Amino acid sequence: MKFVHLSDLHLGKRLNGFSMLEDQEYILDQILQIIDSEHPDAVLIAGDIYDKPIPPAPAVQLFDRFLCQLADRQLLVFAISGNHDSPERIAFGAHLMDRSGIHLSPVYDGSISPITLTDENGPVNIYLLPFVKPAHLRRFFPEKEIASYTDALRVAVEQMSIDTTQRNLLVTHQFVTGALRCDSEEISVGGSDNVDATVFADFDYVALGHIHNPQNIGSPAIRYCGTPLKYSFSEASHTKSVSVVSLPSKGELEVRTVPLIPLHDLRELRGSYQYLTARETYLGTATDDYLHITLTDEEDIHDAIAKLRVIYPNLMKLDYDNRRTRAGIPLEADHQIETKTPLQLFCEFYEKQNNQPLSDEQLAFTQKLMETIWEEKQ
In terms of domains, do 41 and 181 share one? Predict the structure, then answer.
């Protein structure tokens, strides 16, 4: 059985003030061409369909068109809500759309029943688990100890009563420990949203969303397909793609990628104003790409962004790198930040600000306050 794995469409997104809707429509049309050549049995969309819980009307219309085009091809679709989506809005009309083979995740209510497909090698059970927080699970399982995202996902999976003799596929949207993140993703302080990959041990394939860089976590069976477009300049070096997944029989898995070519690439350029405006520099290059330009001139160029946009109309961001800006460069980032708890991070911040550590009384008060805020937030 073959699947096309998509996620993080972020329809309706604006990047540095530029609407990405035309680019999103272009890339969805390209994905349809790939689907036509691959002939999958179903399409998996692992959350963050929209960029905001209340998406703009053109984004909703674009997704509606995409679903209709998939349905016209008599393709099954399995889609869930991500952390950027409103689960209630994604679930609207789900029972009606089920009849057309468009399966949208309901709002999580403590139980998930699989949708079972069958081929010559038997059943494939597909489970749709939308983005959930520990608080969502505590509401339905107050008797369980659910202190972390790993606890929450473990409890959610336990309720599925998975038959491990059959092929089982999960579509979900979480941050699995070890995934490489980008600037365009929401990051929780201290890595508090981490989920341990061991909770997915009973699945033959886990179609993940949330992380924008395509990657496997530990094995090809746990995979982020990544975004179809670049949504930050930290993704400039990424190669975006569609993941094509085959589950021939129990214990067999094949995953490969088909590259996507955007309408406008997202690139970074660097050099002096004179160099970047020289005819020999920009001739033969895609000047209409979305650009982040870093000027190396020691003196600021008057109205540089307007002047550069004459040549590079989609210039999104302009920086300088010279003696003046380097003098104000902040301290090197703490690359261990995601392994530290919020309390550890606060203690370090307090000590840097006050040149002394928290007292025992202050530490106890801070810890109690954080626990109270965490409970309210969850």
Answer: yes
Residue 104 domain flag: yes
Q: How far apart are CA 201 and CA 56, in angstroms?
A: 38
Phi, psi of 101 (to 5 degrees): 85, 10
Q: Are residues 212 and 308 in the same domain?
A: no
Main-chain phi, psi angles of 253, to 5 degrees: -150, 135
241 & 219 share domain: yes
Q: Are residues 75 and 199 in the same domain?
A: yes
- Residue 54 Cα distances to 4, 85, 88, angstroms: 27, 8, 11
Say what the pLDDT of residue 190 is: 45
pLDDT single digits (tens) 170-218: 999 999 987 776 665 565 544 568 899 999 999 999 999 999 999 999 8
Q: Extract the tokens encoding 282.
A: 């920009």
HSE-CB of 349 using CA atoms within 13 angstroms: 10
How far is it, in rounded angstroms, from Cα 263 to Cα 18? 14
Rg (CA), the chain: 23
Contact partners, residue 365, CB within 8 Å, separation at least 6 = none
Count of structural domains, the chain: 3
**Residues 316, 16 contacting (CB under 8 angstroms):** yes
Domain that holds residue 322: 266-327
What percent of the chain clears pLDDT 90, i.e. is strictly above it?
Answer: 74
- Residues 320 and 351 reside in one and the same domain: no
The verdict on residue 333 lying in a domain is no
